[in-house]
């Protein structure tokens, strides 16, 4: 079995999280590293494609640019049965196609000098006193002082850290279709919660996509188990209601882990980022989260190499205190309230839909023009208003469902 020379860093995965870590390492003067990607590039990944949250700030901080075709969406439409409201966003959300986006991010870090190894998968890792040994499907062993798991929901690093911990993932399905003659607006993202009364704990989305295409999908929070056939049926039902006749076949599904501030995301010589560390539990968004994770991880790795302290004991706390961690922690709480089992979700859905200020805050959160975690007083005021208006709002909710 071939054993390679010792690297400073080995990044598993060449998606947005891996590219962000690479860009940050290069900014910090770290050059002895490689990205290991199990697939040949370019490779596609199912995704809604919205660069929501603080993606723009992450691009700027990493010295990267959005160079691929994208569709700006300056407004969002929220639907629930007969209810519909459109909110303007302070800055547009750019919708991309992941196959193009991921490939160009890797092209950018390659242009800056990053080494990317394609079509080779990590199958086993062993943490030694002085390095981590990663065995690949090509029968060789890569050695690095630090390994960063940017390898998605099935991350080998996440599995090493979590052990036998049991958790249910979010379930998502998406399908990309030609826009054709559909009446779908090309400047609006649609979030449709109409399947909530049928047991779906999440929403159906419809986004404009580059190349005169549309991206439709569904996200289901793991409050209870729903099988793929049911989720696909609900997605098609809601798509028809939105004016899109999606074919019965062609949708792609994938699981994702919601962020949990208590979950282990680091250990000596190991870090996780992006989907491996947990995404937004409220919206299922992961691109901006991955890039923000990459900034924090790159800084911690660079400092570890300078100090020769590879414990990473402060990494989970640093993620939690960063803007990305504060937003993820709040969204985790909101998702638990909004997507819970039983009928209590109606209380929170009535608040979200019928308090205009809450929808404005949601739009600001999606566009990244505001840190929702810093709006606790505004959120508290919305809760107080709801105490007064809840009965009327619940009647409006029932009328919207009728």
Q: Which helices and strands occur, and which strands form pairs?
A:
Elements (H helix, E strand, L loop, with lengths): L1 E11 L3 H12 L5 E4 L13 E2 L3 H8 L8 E10 L2 E13 L2 H14 L3 E3 L4 E6 L4 E5 L3 E10 L6 H7 L7 E9 L9 E5 L9 E8 L3 E8 L7 H14 L10 E5 L9 E2 L2 E3 L14 H21 L7 H7 L1 H16 L6 H10 L1 H12 L8 H26 L1
Parallel strand pairs: 1-2, 1-9, 2-6, 4-11, 9-16
Antiparallel strand pairs: 3-5, 4-5, 7-8, 8-9, 10-13, 10-14, 11-12, 12-13, 15-16
In short:
This protein is α/β, with parallel strands linked by helices and 402 residues long. The protein has helices spanning 16-27, 55-62, 98-111, 156-162, 228-241, 287-307, 315-321, 323-338, 345-354, 356-367, 376-401; strands at residues 2-12, 33-36, 50-51, 71-80, 83-95, 115-117, 122-127, 132-136, 140-149, 170-178, 188-192, 202-209, 213-220, 252-256, 266-267, 270-272. Helix 1 runs parallel beside helix 3, helix 1 runs parallel beside helix 6 (287-307) and helix 7 crosses helix 8 (323-338).
Give a verbal description of the structure.
The chain is an alpha/beta fold. It has three domains: 207 residues, FAD/NAD(P)-binding domain, CATH 3.50.50.60; 87 residues, D-Amino Acid Oxidase, Chain A, domain 2, CATH 3.30.9; 60 residues, no CATH class. It is 37% helix and 26% strand. The protein is built from eleven helices and 16 strands. Strands 1, 2, 6, 7, 8, 9, 15 and 16 form an eight-stranded mixed beta sheet that branches. Strands 3-5-4-11-12-13-10-14 form an eight-stranded mixed beta sheet. Helix 1 packs parallel to helix 3. The longest helix is centred in the C-terminal third of the chain and has 26 residues. It is globular. The N and C termini lie far apart (66 Å). The model has no long low-confidence stretch (mean pLDDT 94).
């Amino acid at each position: 079995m071939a054993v390679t020379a010792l690297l400073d860093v080995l990044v598993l995965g060449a998606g947005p999280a891996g590219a962000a870590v690479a860009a940050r390492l290069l900014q910090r003067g770290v050059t002895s590293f490689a990205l290991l990607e199990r697939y040949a590039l370019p490779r596609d990944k199912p995704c809604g494609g919205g660069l929501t949250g603080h993606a723009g700030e992450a691009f700027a901080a990493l010295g990267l640019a959005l160079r691929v075709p994208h569709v700006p969406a300056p407004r969002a439409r929220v639907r629930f049965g007969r209810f519909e409201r459109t909110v303007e966003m302070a800055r547009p959300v750019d919708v991309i196609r992941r196959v193009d986006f991921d490939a160009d991010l890797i092209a950018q870090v390659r242009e800056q000098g990053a080494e990317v190894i394609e079509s080779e998968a990590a199958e086993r890792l062993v943490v030694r006193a002085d390095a981590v040994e990663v065995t690949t499907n090509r029968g060789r062993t890569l050695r690095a002082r630090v390994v960063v798991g940017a390898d998605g929901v099935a991350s080998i690093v996440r599995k090493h850290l979590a052990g036998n911990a049991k958790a249910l993932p979010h379930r998502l399905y998406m399908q990309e279709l030609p826009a054709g003659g559909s009446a779908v607006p090309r400047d609006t993202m649609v979030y449709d919660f109409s399947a909530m009364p049928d047991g779906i704990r999440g929403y159906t989305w419809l986004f404009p996509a580059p190349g005169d295409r549309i991206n439709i999908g569904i996200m289901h929070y793991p409050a209870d188990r729903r099988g793929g056939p049911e989720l696909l049926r609900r997605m098609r039902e809601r798509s028809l209601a939105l004016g899109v006749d999606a074919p019965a076949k062609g949708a792609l599904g994938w699981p994702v882990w919601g962020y949990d501030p208590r979950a282990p995301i680091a250990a000596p010589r190991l870090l996780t980022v992006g989907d491996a560390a947990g995404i937004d539990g409220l919206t299922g968004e992961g691109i901006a989260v991955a890039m923000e994770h990459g900034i924090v991880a790159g800084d911690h790795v660079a400092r570890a190499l300078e100090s020769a302290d590879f414990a990473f004991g402060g990494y989970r706390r640093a993620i939690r205190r960063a803007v990305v961690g504060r937003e993820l922690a709040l969204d985790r709480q909101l998702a638990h309230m909004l997507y819970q089992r039983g009928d209590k979700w109606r209380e929170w859905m009535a608040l979200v839909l019928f308090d205009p200020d809450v929808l404005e805050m949601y739009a600001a959160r999606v566009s990244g023009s505001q840190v929702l975690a810093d709006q606790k007083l505004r959120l508290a005021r919305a809760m107080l208003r709801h105490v007064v208006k809840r009965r009327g709002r619940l009647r409006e909710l029932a009328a919207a469902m009728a």
